[in-house]
């Protein structure tokens, strides 16, 4: 996260949060203060305005007051007390019920030292750090952004406060760049594009977080899945298929029920021949794959054994966290599990990186990504199953693999799965926020839980290790990322409609229909626009649809058996022979070529 890497920016944002509260107090003397922390892109502060709520129109006046405070070069003075002294100091300065409650909560958690910062007449309970004086803050690099409601202490049973969000950066250029990115992000938000381009749909009667994939979205899913299956075939994977529900006993053995139950749908109780059995919708594919491995005796000659499945899973995400396609309750995972000997790990890891790089190149994911080594939290070790010896070994194996591959990485403490550490490949979206696109996990626990074995050269049983890998995440998350990264304009090979024929007049319709029929015979998703719309409106409509190729057919094209090719996002049109165009198009689709830079790579 940016704030962890940039202490200067943290101080700027934290200090500006205090100045916001000071400016609000000046304009609204009876206001009561909540909290005001820095955030990923700025800061916020929570206020209780009593019966006089503010509006967006008040933000400009508050901003002006903040700039005056910055210009006054007030110092940030530090004070430190025990609990009694802190309460006395706060009450003498100003009655602040929320601040007093905060002091009490800190004391109840065992805190013995309580600190304050003061600028001019303003005082706040705070541990810092801050800049030395307000004049060190950039007056043109922040902006009060919006107003929202927020429950005190995040408790919906407590009072609703008014939260003022602000943006803040080190200089005006960074603020302007962020605003530009956000405007693009809003324009290309996957929820907006998903609706405009008929990708997916939600219905209350189906349920929250359970998307209905429309024909256009299903094409994208199918093409991505077909590409993944082709890639996996080349890399030696065997495909499997597993049921959507299973007995709860399986998740007892895998320890998912113990570690993951809060994220699973409630069980279905089935009574059969007088016996009741609990069945669960599967949240993961891996336990089923382990049973497939164990279905027959394995030899060292069978390893590595790579089992792959685009398996549909179900997770009960909290209602407030369900969002578009990013957080859903039904997802189809690009999943595979590799069963191997320990001495095969290095070579197999190299093959995975090769596969991942090919995927990234094809999808045009050329923007910078970071590798996160996701390890256990030493402060919450009970969350992670298995021995310390097992975890130490797995974490060291992954870290060494990253170093040997020459990959830069950072540690994500507490981000590991309950059964093992992992590498997460973090890509930035249009807003610069990191999203996990791919993972590789090392698992020593599941072979123990499932008693997995293979026979070595001496005829002795040995335990394999498992690599869990998902280069393309889930259909839902990956397509939401691509929608925004491409701005909705998918490359020809996976676009819902690849070619639309636009005849100039009715005399050209027969030639256009024959062309579409020929393209269909070659498995190209093509259609013809024979509507009554004007020629310009037809072009505009298909540009809005982001169809990658429009073929303009006039009398000249009919007479000379040609097409005029108009490509999305490319200004230059090209007239060429019909057969030559089809040959080029088929080569482009087969090679999964991307002819223009995606929106995300331009930023």
Structure description:
There is one protein chain. The strands form 7 sheets. An 8-stranded mixed sheet has the order 10-14-15-22-19-18-16-17, sandwiched between helices. A 5-stranded mixed sheet has the order 24-23-25-26-27, sandwiched between helices. It is globular, with a radius of gyration of 29 Å. The mean pLDDT is 93. The two termini are 19 Å apart. With 603 residues, it is an alpha+beta fold. It contains 19 helices and 27 strands. Helix 2 (7-27) crosses helix 3 (58-71), helix 4 (83-93) packs antiparallel against helix 5 (97-108) and helix 7 crosses helix 15.
Mean pLDDT: 93
Q: Characterize the main sheet.
A: 8 strands, mixed
Separation of the first and last Cα atoms: 19 Å
Helix vs. strand class: alpha+beta
Given as residue ranges, the uncertain stretches (5+ residues, pLDDT < 50) are: none
Helix content: 25-40%
Give the count of helical stretches: 19
How many DSSP-defined strands? Answer: 27
Spatial sequence of strands, sheet with the most strands: 10-14-15-22-19-18-16-17
Shape: globular
Radius of gyration: 29 Å
* Beta-strand share of residues: 15-25%
């Amino acid at each position: 996260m940016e704030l962890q890497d940039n202490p200067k920016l943290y101080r700027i944002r934290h200090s500006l949060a205090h100045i916001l509260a000071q400016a609000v107090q000046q304009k609204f003397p009876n206001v009561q203060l909540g909290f005001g922390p820095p955030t990923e892109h700025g800061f916020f502060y929570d206020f209780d305005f009593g019966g006089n709520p503010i509006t967006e129109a008040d933000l400009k006046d508050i901003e002006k007051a903040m700039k005056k405070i910055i210009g006054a070069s007030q110092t940030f003075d530090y004070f430190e007390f025990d609990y009694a002294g802190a309460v006395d100091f706060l009450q003498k300065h100003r009655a602040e019920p929320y601040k007093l409650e905060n002091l009490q909560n800190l004391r109840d958690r065992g805190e013995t030292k309580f600190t304050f910062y003061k600028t001019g007449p303003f005082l706040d309970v705070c541990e810092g750090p801050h800049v030395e004086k307000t004049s060190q803050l950039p007056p043109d690099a922040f902006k009060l952004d919006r107003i929202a409601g927020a429950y005190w202490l995040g408790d919906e049973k407590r009072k609703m406060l008014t939260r003022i969000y602000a943006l803040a950066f080190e200089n005006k250029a960074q603020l302007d760049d962020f605003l530009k990115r956000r405007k693009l992000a809003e324009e290309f938000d996957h929820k907006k594009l998903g609706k405009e381009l008929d990708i997916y749909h939600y219905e209350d009667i189906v349920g929250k977080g359970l998307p209905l994939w429309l024909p256009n979205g299903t094409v994208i899913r199918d093409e991505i899945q077909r590409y993944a299956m082709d890639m996996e075939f080349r890399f030696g994977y065997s495909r499997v298929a597993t049921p959507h529900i299973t007995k709860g006993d399986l998740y007892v053995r895998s320890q998912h029920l113990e570690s993951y139950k809060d994220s699973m749908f409630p069980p279905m109780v089935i009574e059969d021949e007088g016996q009741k059995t609990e069945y669960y919708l599967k949240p993961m594919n891996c336990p089923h794959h382990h049973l497939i491995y164990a279905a027959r005796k394995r030899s060292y000659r069978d390893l590595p054994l790579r089992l792959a499945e685009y398996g549909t899973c179900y997770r009960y995400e909290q209602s407030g966290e369900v969002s578009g396609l990013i957080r859903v309750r039904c997802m189809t995972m690009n999943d595979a599990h590799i069963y191997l000997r320990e001495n095969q790990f290095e070579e197999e890891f190299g093959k995975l990186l090769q596969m991942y790089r090919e995927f990234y190149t094809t999808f045009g994911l050329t923007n910078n990504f970071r590798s996160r080594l996701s390890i256990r939290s030493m402060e919450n070790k009970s969350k992670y199953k298995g021995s310390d010896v097992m975890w130490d070994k797995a974490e060291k194996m992954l870290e060494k693999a990253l170093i040997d591959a020459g990959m830069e990485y950072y540690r994500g403490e507490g981000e590991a799965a309950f059964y093992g550490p992992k590498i997460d490949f973090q890509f930035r979206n249009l807003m610069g926020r990191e999203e996990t696109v791919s993972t590789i996990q090392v698992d020593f626990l599941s072979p123990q839980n499932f008693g997995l074995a293979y026979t070595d050269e001496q005829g002795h049983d040995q335990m394999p290790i498992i690599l869990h890998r998902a280069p393309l995440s889930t259909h839902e998350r990956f397509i939401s990322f691509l929608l925004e990264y491409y701005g909705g304009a998918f490359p020809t090979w996976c676009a819902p409609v690849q070619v639309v024929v636009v005849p100039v007049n009715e005399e050209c319709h027969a030639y256009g229909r024959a062309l579409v029929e020929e393209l269909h015979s070659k498995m190209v998703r093509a259609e013809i626009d024979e509507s009554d719309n004007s020629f310009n409106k037809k072009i505009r409509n298909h540009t809005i649809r982001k169809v990658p190729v429009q073929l303009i057919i006039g009398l000249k094209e009919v007479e000379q058996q040609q097409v005029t090719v108009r490509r999305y996002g490319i200004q230059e049109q090209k007239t060429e022979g019909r057969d030559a165009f089809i040959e080029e198009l088929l080569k482009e689709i087969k090679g999964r070529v991307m002819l223009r830079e995606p929106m995300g790579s331009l930023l």
